[in-house]
Every structure is written in structure tokens, then in C-alpha cells.
Amino acid sequence: MISLNYHHLYYFYAVSKEGGIGRAARALNLAQPTLSAQISELERRCGRPLLLRSRNGARLTPEGEAVLRHCRRIFEAGRQLESDIDAGLESALRTLRVGVHSAAPRAAAMRVLDFTRSCDPELRVVVSGGSPEGLLQRLESRALDMAVATLDLSMKLGPNFRGRAIGSIPLVFVAAPSLVRRGAAFPRNLSGRPLLLRGADNPVMKQVELFLRSRGVDARVEAEVDDSELLRALARAGRGIAALELPTVRDDLASGRLVRLHDGPSGLRETVWLIAPKEEEFRPGAEKALRGLLGRFALGRELTADSR
């Protein structure tokens, strides 16, 4: 028999989302003393404080963070069950939910989806985008079956998840024709120029910074953008020089909308990862596609070869 009170868990979940007992009480339409008493009951059951209360709200203790992770899984599973019932349970069993990191190359995501279709043509694929933090939460709560990202999120998810690198894509420095400095050799032609970089936590950002620093290049950072398509649009608009995936800009280079600033490889590459739960936790009905993706799938030379 389960001794946990799931109402107490839900109230705790609401407090953590709202950031305080008072705000949660208003959202739940409960009296604040009643809600506070319910949280205290849960803390007694857990044997330790889950919240640090103050005038400014409530902050989770480390034990509270651990309980919150379980709550996310429990209540996301409940929300997903409601959604599956509404859609029809048989249809839900034939669905693969994929999250795509906003910085991931679209060509890589398309290759993943094409392979999924070849594994199981009857499988319905639901795709959503997001930041690494959002993908982490949805993977942990099982709102996603798999994610495509430019970093191995499984390192933050623990032993019940695995990450698999499916290929590394070459990066090239490109700019609109109006920004090209004639006569200067690469990478000196980057000095003093406006640079469009990825976000601080993006592995490509670290690679580019090290590349420039090791060559004594002092570029001016114009903007930091994690979305690869927005970065491409800014480069095409002449807002700055960007290090982008070769497959992403191949058509722009062919049409002259962008210019490659170096002849040979830059030496920089972006690794693409698949992240999913361990096999015993695969969603029923999606196992065939997930086994193929995490077992034998690779991006292929069309995306990973550094050719003009």
C-alpha cells in the first residue's frame, strides 16, 4: 500500500512552481494556513524540510529539489495520460515525441526524422523545439521520448538516460558580401569585425572563442544567438560574421548571399547528440524507432564531410 498522499505532493509541486505558499494558495483557491499545513505533513512524511520559507517566498532545499524531480515526472505523466485519452490510447501508443534543441542544425533534425520514418512508417512523430533547460525538464518528466541536441544532456539526467553522438558537422566562417574584407588572410580578416556567436553555454561558443584567442584575433561580439536559423538570417542581413554549419549555409554560399571566409577546413565541428531513456523505459510502440536511432543511426557524409 502506498503511504504517500498525492494531494500533498501536488500542493508541494504548486508551491515550487509559484515560488511561495501565498501565491500557490491563491492559484489553488486554498487558505494559506491550510496549504502550509499540508506541506508540513509532507515534510513530516519525508523526515526533513523541503522548503526554506521567508517573507519573499519559499526556496527549495536539496531534498526539496529531489522531491520536485519526482513530482515533475508524476504530474507530467498524469497530464500526458489525459492527453493520450483525449487523442485515443491506441493512437498514443504509436507516437514518438521528439524535442529539438533550437541550436541543432535543421538538416540533422530532418535526417533523424527521415530515419525514424524508415524504421516505422506507421509511427506518428510529434516534434517540438526548446532550450537545453526545457528539454532536460521534459525528458526527465517523460514528456519527451527523445531529444536532438548539440550537447549530451544525459550527463545531467543521471543513469536512467543515455546520450549517443550521431555525427559531427563542419563549421565555416561566413559573412554577407558587404562585410568581406578583401586582401586580408584568414583568420586575420576577422579582427575588429562584428561577430555573431552562440550562447555562452553552447559548445560551439567555446570552440570559437578558443580558436580566436589562440590565433590572436580580437573580434567584436555583435550578438549571441543560439537559434541556428536566426543566426543564419542575421549573417545574411550583414549584421556580422558567423561560424555556421556547412549544410546550413551551402545554398547561401552557392547563391552568393553568403561568402566563405577561408578555403580549407576551419577545424571546428559541431557534434549532434541523441538523448533518450534507457531501453527498458522506452515508450511502448516507439521501441523499434528508438532502438534503430540509438543503435545504428548516423548523420552520413553529406552532412559531416568538410567539402565545398
Structure, explained:
This protein has 308 residues and is of the alpha/beta class. The protein folds into three domains: 66 residues, Arc Repressor Mutant, subunit A, CATH 1.10.10; 128 residues, Periplasmic binding protein-like II (D-Maltodextrin-Binding Protein, domain 2, 3-Layer(aba) Sandwich), CATH 3.40.190; 102 residues, D-Maltodextrin-Binding Protein, domain 2. Helix content is 44%, strand content 21%. It contains 13 helices and eleven strands. Strands 3, 4, 5, 6, 7, 8, 9, 10 and 11 form a nine-stranded mixed beta sheet that branches. The chain has a two-stranded antiparallel sheet with strand order 1-2. Helix 1 packs across helix 2 and helix 1 crosses helix 4. It is globular.
